[in-house]
Amino acid sequence: MQVDPSDDYVGSDQLPDLTSALDGSAGGNAIQPQGGIVAAVTPSDRTARGQKLSRVAFRPNVSNEDIESCYPTGRVTGVHFDGDSAELEYESVCNVVGHRTHVEKVEPVYVPSAEAAQVRPGENLEAMVDAKQEGLVVRSLERHTGESKAPTRVLQVRGVRLHGS
Q1: Model's pTM, two decimal places?
Q2: Which of 39, 116, 142, 163 is the least buried, fewest Cβ under 10 Å from its Cβ?
Q3: What's the DSSP call for residue 26?
Q4: Cβ neighbour number for residue 107 with a 10 Å cutoff
């Protein structure tokens, strides 16, 4: 094959679908990221690819949201120009009138027991799993507590423990 750098490249204008294996559109099992704060690691009766699997249960994701009531004061705070027109911006005052708590359950995953052996409750575990929630540990991070400015340490990558528990 002879390539002339002065000529234009003529090739397919269709890019390959690199995500087809991840979202299951190619007919295979969908591989998805799954994880959260570990609640417990327990042995299970499941096996995959000749390996015993452990069940990793996660704490629910809990988030809080303020419910606000806002009203305009009528006080002009600025002008927004858009081409030949202008729009006045008005001040709003908002008060918190309540709180809402959202709780999202995180499904457990089943990973090789060798990879889950040193995972401890409180760690932030990331895994890639199929539709049966079976997969592999990607990594485990130490849990951030308080307002520490220190970077989060990676404790484990796949089955290799980098730092003690």
Answers
A1: 0.62
A2: 163
A3: T
A4: 10
Residue 116 DSSP SS3: helix
Domains of the chain: 29-60+107-165 (2.40.50), 61-104 (no CATH)
The residue to which tokens 């220190």 are assigned: 150
Count how many residues are written for the chain: 165
Please report which residue ranges of the chain form alpha helices under DSSP H. Answer: 20-23, 113-116
What are the CA-CA distances from residue 136 to residues 25, 38, 42, 76, 153 (Å)? Answer: 21, 15, 15, 57, 20
Tokens of 31: 């591989």
Q: Which of 124, 129, 112, 115 is nearest to 153 (CA)?
A: 124
